[in-house]
Amino acid sequence: MRRVRCGLPSGICSGQKGFTTGTGTHHSTAAGRGIAAEMNPTTITIDDRSIDTVDGRNLLQTCLENGIVVPNLCFVADMTDPPVSCRLCFVEVADVPQPVPACKVAVRAGMVVQTATDRVRRLQRSALRLLLSAHRADCRNCPANKQCPLQDMARFLGVRLRPRRLEQVQRDVPDPMEHPLFTFIPSRCVLCGRCVHACRTHGGGLLTYIRRGFDTLIGALPVDDAESLHCGGCLACEAACPVAAIFIKDTEPPEATMEAPGSLDPSR
Ligand code: SF4
Ligand code: SF4
Ligand code: FES
After folding, report:
1. What's the 81 CA to ligand 2 centre distance in angstroms?
2. Phi, psi for 219 (deg, rounded to 5)
3. Cβ distance 55 to 30 under 8 Å?
């Protein structure tokens, strides 16, 4: 397997795989060295505030635990392998030339962080506009209305829910898509991956990404053996979805195959 550097500057990588390539090697950090190192108390500075935390702790989680607002969508507390898919959580770290996603950074002693610089806000607005360009903002008819992180972040960053400048793009697939186990709404999904993570950690690990690039969708494995598909009905994916884009069906394990029109079979 070809191994490459993870892409984060030396000294701030959290030591977790997944950033940029998913196959990268990582810098040796407290997080990468294990739990014992994470328990060392340390102090860092965030937005000129002195924050007590522990060496190796996730920087985004540290900010949120201390009431410091950093926009985020794909991160789930205590995640060990953040997907860094929303690109919303940028912060600036002293001595690091470029803003970095806070969810992929491990705290280290003496770290100085700025969460609200002009550069950070520009990146966050661009990231949110990009997410919204593939999202049909039909709030009045959406179950997430008024509890929606997209609405909150749009307000916080001063971004319109229906951006003017970017063309609205929709995936060329049925909408909604019916799977034997669930209904998936591509025009709402922002591909944050929270449902996949929830299914892996709380459910049966069925949910996964299918297809690639702009055609990426959420589907289920195995794709060629519908008989063996079984969802325990924990509803963790539904609960994790921030934009009401996935709903588990109240059915027995399916008899239908994955070949039906509008199915989530990645080979189609
Ligand atoms: S997910 Fe949020 S922004 Fe999108 S339609 Fe629903 S309420 Fe509106
Ligand atoms: S279905 Fe919801 S939780 Fe899953 S990737 Fe799409 S937006 Fe995220
Ligand atoms: S929360 Fe960090 S990239 Fe999504």
Report:
1. 17
2. -140, -165
3. yes
112/126 same-domain check: no
Mutate to test the pocket of ligand 1, among 145, 170, 188, 191 (most ligand atoms within 8 A of CB): 145
Q: Which atom of ligand 2 is nearest to the CA of 184?
A: 1
Please list every protein residue whose CB sits less than 6 Å from any atom of ligand 2: 189-195, 218, 240-241, 243, 245-246
Closest ligand, as measured to the CA of 236: 2
Q: Does residue 125 sit in the same domain as residue 195?
A: no
Q: Please report whether residue 261 resides in a domain.
A: no
Distance between Cα 153 and ligand 1 center (Å): 11
- pLDDT tens across 23-81, in order? 233 333 333 333 334 479 999 999 999 999 999 999 999 999 999 999 999 999 878 88
Calculate the dihedral angle through the C-alpha atoms of 132, 136, 142, 144, rounding to the nearest 10 degrees: -20
Write the single-letter amino acid at 102: A
Question: In this predicted complex, what is the ipTM?
Answer: 0.94
Element (H, E) at 202: helix 194-202
